[in-house]
Amino acid sequence: MIVIIPAELFEFLRDLKENNNRPWFQANKDRYEKYYKEPLLAFISEFADRLPQISPYYTAIPKMTGGSLFRIYRDMRFSADKRPYKTWAAMHFRHERAPDVHSPGFYLHLEPGSCFISCGIWKPENRTLQRVRLVISEHPQRWLDAISGPDFQSNYHLAGDALQQAPRGFDANHPMIEDLKRKDFLASHPITEKTALRDDFLDLYTDLCLKSAPFMSFLTESIGLAW
Description:
Elements: H1 7-18, H2 22-27, H3 29-50, E1 89-94, E2 105-110, E3 115-121, H4 126-138, H5 140-148, H6 150-153, E4 157-159, H7 177-180, E5 185-191, H8 193-196, H9 201-211, H10 213-222
Antiparallel strand pairs: 1-2, 2-3, 3-5, 4-5
Helix pairs in contact: 1-3, 4-5, 5-10
């Protein structure tokens, strides 16, 4: 089955950015269903058939609540920004034993003017962060192997926040100190809207996830999960 992300998705998101309010959204609910929800859930469903070739322990769940597709509704409870809707679409494919946005995963972000593919761990809890740092510190060659392969190097760049100083308990002169300072362990690959709309985009996404496998397996196994 060929799954295509429709150009109308980006048109809807652009219009939503200009009209981020409930009356407009309700009046355009059919566009949301047809160009956002339906095709993205179909993308996830098809990716679920491909994901085992990357890792049998990662999941693609075609649901918005408890699934791989982020909900469009913003959580405004603790935010000064009271706009009710996200103006981007995203999906996150997580490990079956760590179903949380801060756990290892493959990610796809679709936003007008800002689309990208990424993988890794975003804002990990302290225990997870410490475990990854310890493995990098104790097995630096394994980390270098994970991030220095030609497939990874030619397609991804490491991203995320980092400390200014060496983390507590780690030697400031450690050869991997710049990586030990990382607060996120993310790898990112920018794409254009045109790329996301290609007929073979699901193939491209799958291939890029495969090319991140050494990096993802390192992170997954570092925190004690099966790859």
